[in-house]
Design brief:
- This protein is mainly beta and 156 residues long.
- The protein folds into 2 domains: 4-50, no CATH class; 64-154, OB fold (Dihydrolipoamide Acetyltransferase, E2P), CATH 2.40.50.
- 8% of the residues lie in helices and 38% in strands.
- It has 1 helix and 12 strands.
- The strands form 3 sheets. The protein has a 5-stranded antiparallel beta sheet with strand order 4-5-12-10-7, with no helix packed on it. A 4-stranded antiparallel beta sheet has the order 9-8-6-11, with no helix packed on it.
- Strand 1 and strand 2 form a beta hairpin.
- The chain starts with a helix and ends with a strand.
Length: 156
């Protein structure tokens, strides 16, 4: 029987490939992994695991209004959220320049950080054009799925 880590690695490999459906039948266990949109009729009672969907980090659907004490209308900020769990790194390697810093302008495809999970480094892109207003996590922090990473003042 596969270990939990081996199952996670199989899911990751299927997820990163063009395979839409994967089945593994081993001794007394059966693993079925289907990507979204693949319908299968299953008989028997094996456990079915659905591969998680990986979506690039993007600005959240709901902009946050920031209160401005000067009386100007509030600016609309977008939140860049984590597309996965992992360790947050501001640079590609220790001692290297940060991908972005507060006050820097970003494009939709600008890499803002990397998240490391199981020795795999996943680049996170801004997903919105604008200016980084605030970094919400620290270098080396463990990040949860959907956790806010940056606030960006979008260009309208």
């Amino acid at each position: 029987m596969l270990t939990f880590d081996e199952i996670k690695e199989v899911i990751r490999m299927v997820e990163q490939s063009s395979i839409q459906h994967f089945e593994l039948d081993q001794e007394n266990s059966k693993i079925i992994i289907s990507k979204a949109g693949v319908d299968r009729v299953q008989t028997g009672s094996p456990v079915e695991l659905e591969a998680p969907r990986v979506v690039p980090a993007a600005a959240s659907d709901k902009p946050q209004a920031v209160t401005d004490i000067s009386g100007d209308p509030p600016e609309q900020l977008h939140t860049i959220v984590s597309p996965t769990v992992g360790t947050f790194y501001m640079a590609s390697e220790p001692g290297a320049d940060s991908f972005v810093s507060v006050g820097e302008e970003v494009e939709c495809h600008t890499i803002v950080c990397v998240l490391e999970a199981m020795k795999l480094f996943n680049e996170v892109v801004a997903g919105v054009k604008g200016t980084i207003v605030e970094r919400l996590v620290s270098d080396g922090d463990f990040i949860e799925y959907g956790q806010p990473l940056f606030l960006v003042k979008s260009e309208s």
